[in-house]
Specification:
56% of the residues lie in helices and 10% in strands.
Length: 501
């Protein structure tokens, strides 16, 4: 499975250019790039959403991007979705935090689970009424569906009633409807959940004042309360008890959206820094960051394409892509922000806003990712051995051998459930190897950047292994021998700063 993943990246990612395939989405992306120009220079550290920009987004399909064509939307593919969200991020992080939950969980729940006539009526109202869709799952315990306390109950008169509280819900100020995850009375398994569609104006529904997130407050986040709300049959979405299954399906595109926003913010910051009359970064550093962000984008587009093709491991790949893209994008932003500080200058406003909001974006659609990474690790290591593909660049073959040693060592220690710390580290190392595969064939600067990222993870990885682990020693030896025999070339070998550790 690991070999298949890397083969997909080697053969597919280098051929993926930028730009949506759908002409309507391509035009939307061009509009977003033009709208971003004046917003980028706004000195406000936490600006409100611009109403004219939002109106343009409603009018030209941004907020109907994932709405099916039969309901008046663009019916965008996952590939088109991530391309558009990268451009949305250029408007500012608050715009991405507004768009992603609406386009993913909100629209998808209505489009796939509502009766067709009801879905069409709600979805066509998005551009007409300039209203969004919200999705409410999180409570005090987070987004774990199994711990939901909000519940549907059967009243003495036979009607269904919804009671409970949801926390940290996005877009309530601008939403017409909210999709709520609640415990179901119609399923025998304790804790089984049901999706419920609730109009925000329905009696018994109330919204608390918005939270102060200390960044991206243009995107409202508030708590939601249900007090004996009467639920009609049409409001029950999907089958009782399948809330977890529905959520796990819908969160995949949400993770891709959050990752695309991180990549878009990093790409914009790198371009701004490179265009600065007094560049904060050296030419080499700027080129490496630009090449690195391009590799992240290729990995993200590859994941989206596999989702469009219904690849059987798409769910695992989205978790890996979200984690690695957000991690490396945050590092790029930190490099740029630090470089400005070293010059005694403030970062451009859009860079400062991105730096402050990156933690929130990494959290968006993030709860549960640790468990998902454990699933990735268990999936990738299926006991399949064998040598890496000889057609791969040597650094990738060396990285693959190192990963094989680490996975074997993890298996010898009891597997993912016994060593969750090792699993988290392996998830990052595997993501770094995937980046290295995506960089293959894209040029020496990208290859050097990707090899450096893997080297960095390799330096840290043995800390997760037991003392005296033969597999870890063998992994280091494989990479050291590669350098000693000159198989990496002087530039790639120089990136192995960790090899003397």
């Amino acid at each position: 499975m690991l070999h298949e993943l890397l083969d997909l990246a080697v053969t597919g990612a280098p051929t993926l250019g930028t730009g949506p395939a759908d002409p309507a989405v391509a035009e939307l992306c061009r509009r977003l790039e033009r709208l971003a120009v004046p917003l980028r220079a706004d000195p406000d550290p936490d600006p409100a959403l611009d109403e004219a920009v939002l109106a343009d987004g409603f009018a030209h399909g941004l907020f109907s991007l994932t709405v099916p064509r039969e309901s008046g939307g663009l019916g965008g593919s996952l590939r088109d979705f991530v391309e558009a969200i990268e451009r949305v991020a250029q408007l500012g992080p608050a715009y991405a935090i507004t768009a992603v939950p609406h386009l993913c969980a909100g629209v998808k729940a209505i489009a796939t689970l509502c009766p067709p006539d009801t879905a069409r009526d709600i979805l066509t109202g998005i551009p007409r009424d300039r209203r969004l869709l919200a999705f409410a799952i999180t409570e005090e315990t987070g987004s774990d569906v199994a711990t939901v306390h909000t519940r549907l109950t059967r009243a003495p008169d036979g009607t269904l009633r919804l009671n409970g509280r949801k926390q940290w819900i996005t877009n309530l100020e601008r939403a017409s409807h909210v999709v709520v995850v609640a415990r179901s009375p119609a399923h025998p398994v304790p804790g089984a959940t049901q999706f419920v569609c609730v109009p925000l104006g329905q009696p018994g529904v109330s919204v608390a004042p918005a939270w102060d997130k200390h960044c991206a407050n243009g995107s409202d986040t508030a708590d939601l309360f249900f007090d004996n709300v009467e639920i009609a049959p049409w409001q029950l979405l999907g089958e009782p008890g399948k809330g977890m299954a529905y959520f796990n399906h819908m969160v995949q595109s949400g993770r891709l959206g959050a990752a695309a926003a991180c990549v878009g913010l990093a790409r914009d910051a790198v371009a701004l820094a490179a265009a600065d009359p007094v560049p904060p970064l050296s030419a080499g550093h700027a080129a490496a960051l630009a090449a690195g962000v391009d590799v992240l984008g290729r990995m993200l587009r590859l994941t989206a394409r596999l989702g469009d093709d219904h690849h059987p491991q798409f769910a695992a790949l989205t978790s890996l892509a979200k984690h690695i893209c957000s991690l490396e994008a945050q590092r790029a932003l930190t490099d740029i922000d630090t470089a400005y500080a070293c010059q005694g200058r403030a970062s451009p406003p859009s860079v400062s806003r991105a730096v402050r909001a990156m933690g929130l974006l990494r959290l968006l659609k993030g709860p549960g990712e640790v468990l998902a990474q454990q699933a990735v690790a268990a999936w990738l290591w299926q006991g399949k051995g064998g040598e890496p593909n000889p057609a791969w660049p040597y650094p990738l073959r060396a990285a693959c051998r190192a990963l094989a040693h680490w996975y074997a060592d993890l298996a010898a220690q009891g597997g993912p459930s016994a060593r969750p710390g090792a699993v988290a580290s392996l998830g990052e190392a595997t993501g770094a190897a995937w980046l290295l595969a995506c960089a293959s064939g894209t040029g020496p600067v990208a290859a050097r950047w990707a090899w450096h990222r893997f080297s960095s993870h390799a330096r840290q990885h043995p800390l997760t292994m037991h003392q005296g682990a033969d597999a870890a020693t063998q992994a280091f030896q494989t990479l050291r021998e590669a350098r000693a025999h000159g198989r990496l070339g002087p530039n790639l070998a120089g990136a192995m700063a960790w090899q003397s550790a």
